[in-house]
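Follow-up to my post from last week.
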Amino acid sequence: MKQTENLSAALPPTNPAAPLPPKPLTAKTLPDDEFFFGHKGCAGCGGALVVRQTLKVLGPHVICALPAGCMSAVGFNFPQLSFANNAMITPFAATASVLSGIEAGLRAQGIKPEDCTVVGFAGDGGTADIGLQALSGAIDRNDDILYICYDNEAYMNTGIQKSSLTPFGAKTTTTPAGAHVHGCLTRKKNMFQIVAAHDIPYAATASIGYLNDFIKKVQKAATIHGTRYIHVIAPCPTGWGTREDETIDLAKEVADCGLWYLAEFEGSQLCGMPGGKYIVNRRPKEFSSVEAYLRRQGRFKQLDENDVQEVIRERDIAWAWLDDLATGAK
Amino acid sequence: MKRFLSGDEALAEGVRLARPNIISAYPITPQTVVVEHLSEMVEQGRLDAEYVHVESEHSALSCALGASATGARTFTATSSQGLLYMAEVLSYAAGGRFPIVMMNANRALALPWNIYGDQRDSLALLDHGWIQLYVQDNQEALDAVLMAYALAEDERVSTPVMINLDGFALTHTYETVDIPEPEQADSFLPPYRTKNKFDFEHPVNIGYSAGPEFNRYYKHAAHWDMVDALPVIDEVEKRFAEVFGREYPGVLEEYRCADADRIIVTLGSVAGLVRQVVDDLRNAGEKVGMVRLRYMRPFPAERLVKALLGVGAVGGSSEASGEASGDDNADDGARSKAPAARSIAVLEKDISFGAEGTVFTNVSSALLQAITCAPSASACGIRDICNFVGGLGGDDISYEQVEGIFALLKRRASIVEDPNAALVDASAEASNAASGAAKAAAHTSPLDPRKKVYFLGIDSLEEGGAR
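User reply:
Got it. Predicted complex:
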């Protein structure tokens, strides 16, 4: 692992006359450079992988902003600062608006390098709940920023409380599972649909279990101007009640059993079609067992057969919607 | 160029002359005219700035925060509920030492809903680490923008500034305003340069976490840098007067105070009215005066006490501007006639429910501290009062520190009871100030906040003095 000092000494000059054309990256060809290390993330943290892999793709000239949440809590502890690139903490609700300010500030002064991506990493609560208004504002202005939501399906930093991206049936400390209520009663808010409804230039869903797909989407997003949004599932062993070596498996399985999907939205600006275009990147011919996925996690332990059937029913509705959108776009 | 402008319009002209790179603001009555005018200036190309159409006040200041972190000069404006809505971000801006300048149109807080002027909005946020200035007319509103940037961006200060205009009384009232030429403004206010920003050659982490073992050092620095901004305010105004020919009276303005037996302390636009009443009563032979607080943070305790207790001269810079100066010169001869005791009233558009007006609290505190420095103070039952700041950022307050507080009170008592160390020093200090050693003298005055505020875990409690 390279140290910060060596890394910055090795940086190409800012505003290179001819930026290198991006080569398609895979898990095997990702640079060895590290931009996020020495942090205090839990063992098996999915969110930390999102940040680490994204920064490897985007390179040294990134500026990132992180609101209150797991990644700022584990990454910004003075004097142990864990970002080798420019980075700052933002108010909880302000990921998108701080990103907008950074981008506008660089542009107004004419000091933004060609290969600079202004990127935010916010959790599910920071994105779908308290930060949604600022995100909507940034997409409305089409500010040239990349917003990445690492979704671990609850407020994990404060100790596992329900967010609007907590799935039906999940036990959290504010949706306790008892004899009367079996955990979270609401369904996962559809952030992908919400940002797409803004006709955002580019949006994608991803999973850290499908790393090549995620890398590809980050790389694609980096080449697009305007607001870009990637929503990536990032399991949390601490909050999900799973072993720390299961994170990647779970991130795969949630997509295999159909409770998450890997998709893209190209807005009208990008694809030239009114209303934009939906693309499903991975359509399992046959879903793996939803029950098996749920049963291996402590947070779903209390679910009975009816609850599981309800989860499956919701999954099928979601896929019918997605298939319809993707087909309609062809 | 002289124009007939509202306070909002005058302020917008000041912003144009300050050439911010980024403006991010959200409309709210009675600030709206400011953002309308700035949008228009940007559209017309009269102002080369990026106007970011944020969706809320919270985002307005957050956007300014991000932009400031890139080294951009930034401006925002708000009022009332909008200021409270962005309140969380105020501490980010101040703690990150981002020299953002904000205009606040002072307006009442709901409920009952009310769009008209009062000062509860900004005074409720005195503790958030922003320099707070209250202007009295539209010319001052324009000039304040240029001086606010000069002050905020001064490396020694590096603190955001809030310029307060009374809603409607100033924002929507028209006066003749002299608009400086851009070349003049440029010579006064060079482009913003800072090291407190992102750097692509040497990347930095900005605005991180600092736990109990470090947190107090950041707050200690922020506090003393704000206190030390007091002389910088005078420097900036002096430079402003050299370039533009308009003088301002520093952190506060004294008006016919020298021999007054009654003084009203106030702030903002109502000072114009108070001034008129003072003049009329003076003509009728009554000895009344006014102190107009221009800055609430940093709080000008020392100059306020000197004005109210009538001790010594306070130097030319404190004389009232404009038509007032003639009257004050007339008062100079009457200094020896200062009354043995005087009555003081604080007039403010604010109430801290269940206590009193916040300006009154601040004024009273400064007076109490000064009075307990006097030789006769122990006669009224209180010998000394001082302030210990501990537990910041979760820092522990120890048994030994509490013991140390009692021990220090004991040592201070012996100093305070020395008659030579009392208020008489203030006169000596004032003459020092007149001879140009203001800053050095300020740090040895019994009214020096450095001798009143101790940071536990930083300042020594052993030697009987802070730092």
